[in-house]
């Protein structure tokens, strides 16, 4: 037990799946621990005893900073880094590689402060990660003007930064759109030559199935990192490769 505690107090706890996926790209081996409950929704993250234990035993905390995880971390008397500004209505900043590029120096600097002996590792990892983000940025840019329907309303920043044309979304909040909204979306789709449906691979949607069947709307999985189990660059590269491949069909 004491051995586990000694190990955890030497680590930075990371709360929020997107935050962990990004931070893991920069940290040296063994420096961070994922405090995010497995499979938890970042909109409604629960403060369980296991989460509290990891946070309390860590030397510092990096948190996404959405409303749910910000409340868990704010009162801790240890160094903290929030990646999102407070009060942000739409937290899905991480879906834009352009925005994540701005996080890299913040995370690198924070890790340098906590682990000064591995600054060179952070610098090397950050340089490699930024190159991957720049490649993602270029690939996202290739899709400017293309039409999409998204299952989850998470693509606001992608629309703003890359000009993706999101014709509609199948969810409002945590519920699927109403029959009236669906009818309006289907009418709008009839005038589109090519539109791609971006599905959440972790959340089946009957509305998405109906759109694919009735309109022949092609679809592809797009992991929005709300349950991230791998590095940011690997997930996002798979996402964009899938979209580009689907549009070439």
UniProtKB/TrEMBL annotation:
The signal peptide stretch is none
InterPro entries, per database record: Bact_metal-bind_prot9, ZnuA-like
Q: Which BP terms does GO give this entry? A: metal ion transport
The residues that cross the membrane are none
User: GO molecular-function annotation terms?
Assistant: metal ion binding
Which superkingdom? Bacteria
The record, for Pfam families, names: ZnuA (PF01297)
The record, for PANTHER family, names: HIGH-AFFINITY ZINC UPTAKE SYSTEM PROTEIN ZNUA-RELATED (PTHR42953)
Protein name, per record: Zinc (Zn2+) ABC uptake transporter substrate binding protein, putative
Q: Which organism is it from?
A: Coprothermobacter proteolyticus (strain ATCC 35245 / DSM 5265 / OCM 4 / BT)
């Amino acid at each position: 037990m004491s051995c586990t505690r000694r190990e955890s107090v030497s680590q930075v706890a990371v709360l929020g799946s997107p935050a962990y996926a990004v931070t893991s790209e920069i940290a040296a081996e063994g420096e961070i621990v994922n405090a995010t409950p497995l499979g938890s929704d970042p909109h409604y993250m629960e403060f369980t005893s296991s989460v509290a234990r990891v946070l309390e035993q860590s030397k510092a905390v990096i948190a996404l900073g959405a409303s749910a995880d910000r409340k868990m971390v704010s009162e801790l008397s240890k160094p903290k880094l929030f990646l999102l500004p407070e009060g942000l209505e739409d937290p899905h900043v991480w879906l834009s590689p352009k925005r994540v590029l701005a996080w890299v120096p913040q995370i690198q600097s924070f890790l340098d402060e906590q682990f000064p002996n591995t600054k060179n590792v952070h610098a090397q990892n950050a340089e490699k990660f930024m190159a991957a983000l720049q490649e993602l940025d270029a690939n996202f840019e290739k899709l400017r003007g293309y039409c999409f329907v998204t299952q989850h309303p998470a693509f606001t920043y992608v629309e703003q930064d890359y000009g993706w044309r999101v014709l509609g979304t199948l969810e409002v909040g945590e519920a699927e759109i109403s029959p009236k909204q669906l009818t309006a979306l289907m009418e709008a789709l009839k005038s589109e030559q090519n539109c791609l449906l971006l599905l959440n691979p972790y959340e089946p949607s009957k509305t998405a199935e109906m759109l694919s069947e009735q309109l022949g709307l092609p679809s592809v999985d797009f992991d929005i990192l709300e349950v991230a189990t791998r590095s940011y660059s690997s997930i996002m590269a798979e996402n964009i490769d899938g979209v580009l491949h689907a549009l070439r069909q």
